[in-house]
Amino acid sequence: MLGLALLQREDYTEGVKELEKALDLERGASPKGYKVEEIWQDLARARYLLWEHESTKRSWDLQNLKETCMAALKEKHFLDTSQVEGFVDENIQSNLEQLEALNGVFNKAAEDDIPTDVPDYLCCKITLDIFRDPVITPSGLTYERAVILDHLHKVGNFDPVSREPLYSSQLVPNLAIKEAARAFLETHGWAYKTD
C-alpha cells in the first residue's frame, strides 16, 4: 500500500522501492499466490511511470542542450566568417558538418527513450509479454512460469508448441533469459507499459 501511495504522490523512485520490497515479501510468503501477479502489475506500472518521468526530463534537458550547442556553433561560424576572408566555402562546409555531427549525437542520445519492438527471445510464446519468471522445458522452449503452469493444469500435460509430454517437475528456471529481460527493461523502461 505504501508503494501505491508514493506513486499517487508522484514519488516514483520510492514507490518502486516499496513495491519491490512488497513483491519480494509476497514471493517468500506465497510464491504462486494471486498477490504476486497483482504486485508485479503495480510494480511494472510504477517502473513505467518512473521511466516516463525520467524520459521527459531527459528529453527536455537534451533539447535545451542541443539548442544551446547549435546556437554556439552558429555564433562560432559567424565569428569565423567575419574574421577570415577567402575561406568562406570551407567554413560553411565545416560548419554544416559540425551541425550534422551534433544532430547525430543528440539523436543517438535519445534512442533508448524511443519505443521499439521487444526482441522475440525476451517474450513468452503464449502471452507475447516480456518475461518476468521464465522457465525452460526439456524441448528447449521458454515460457513464463505462471502461464505454462496454468496451461499444464487447465489444458493438459504437454508442451503447447512442441506438443511433447510435459510435467511441472520438468520446468527449470531460465536464468539467462531472466537476466537478459531484466537488462533490457533497465535500459528500455518503456517496455514496462502494460495495456
Automatic annotation (TrEMBL):
It comes from Olea europaea subsp. europaea. Residues 117-191 form the U-box domain. The keyword Ligase applies. PANTHER family: E3 UBIQUITIN-PROTEIN LIGASE CHIP (PTHR46803). InterPro entries: CHIP_RING-Ubox (IPR045202), Ubox_domain (IPR003613), Znf_RING/FYVE/PHD (IPR013083). It is an enzyme of class 2 (transferase). Its EC number is 2.3.2.27. It catalyses: S-ubiquitinyl-[E2 ubiquitin-conjugating enzyme]-L-cysteine + [acceptor protein]-L-lysine = [E2 ubiquitin-conjugating enzyme]-L-cysteine + N(6)-ubiquitinyl-[acceptor protein]-L-lysine. This is RING-type E3 ubiquitin transferase. One of its GO terms (cellular component) is cytoplasm. It comes from the Eukaryota. GO terms for biological process: cellular response to misfolded protein; positive regulation of proteolysis; proteasome-mediated ubiquitin-dependent protein catabolic process; protein polyubiquitination; protein quality control for misfolded or incompletely synthesized proteins.
